[in-house]
Amino acid sequence: MRIAWIGLAAALVATSAQAAVIPAAEASAHVSQSETVEGVVSEVHTARSGKATGKTVDVTGVIKEYQGRPEVIVTSRSQIRTN
Questions:
Q1: Which pLDDT belongs to residue 28?
Q2: Side-chain-side CA neighbours of residue 16 (13 Å)
Q3: What is the reported pLDDT for 47?
Q4: Is 43 exposed, middle or buried (0-12, 13-18, 19+ CB in 10 A)?
Q5: 3-state secondary structure of 78
Q6: CB distance 46 to 37 below 8 Å
Q7: Measured distance CA(4)–CA(8) in Å, rounded
Q8: 37 and which of 14, 26, 74, 82 could share a cystine (Cβ 3.0–4.6 Å)?
Q9: Backbone torsion region of residue 7, taken as left when φ is above 0, otherwise alpha when ψ lies between -120 and 50, otherwise beta
Q10: What does the DSSP assignment read for 6-68?
Q11: Is the pTM of the predicted complex or chain greater than 0.85?
Q12: Residue 74: which of 43, 20, 29 has the closest Cα?
């Protein structure tokens, strides 16, 4: 799963705040749902990019599809939990 940072935003793995954390590999089955996803950061798009790449994180937000891959757009640091 891809996580995209926009300004303070990031593309990551998503998870539902009130549901169990789902693995990144299952994110595509949850498009259009708000979920908490756990996985390794594959891409970061922000002025401060690179610090999270390769780290395992949980990201909460609505899972969207971008170029055939699931992603979560992060607009707040509160959406990200590092493991």
A1: 93
A2: 11
A3: 55
A4: middle
A5: helix
A6: no
A7: 10
A8: 14
A9: left
A10: TTTTEE---B-TTS--EEGGGGGGGTTSEEEEEEE-----STTTTSSTT-EEEEEEEEEEETT
A11: no
A12: 43
What average pLDDT does the chain have? 76
User: How many Å separate Cα 38 from the centre of its chain?
Assistant: 8
What residue ranges do the domains of the chain occupy?
2-77
User: Is a pLDDT exceeding 80 seen at residue 58?
Assistant: yes
Is beta strand 69-74 parallel, antiparallel or unpaired with respect to 34-40?
Answer: unpaired
The radius of gyration computed from the CA coordinates of the chain, to the nearest angstrom, equals 11
**How many other β-carbons are positioned within 10 Å of the β-carbon of residue 67?**
6
pLDDT of residue 9: 37
pLDDT tens-place string over residues 72-83: 888 888 898 887
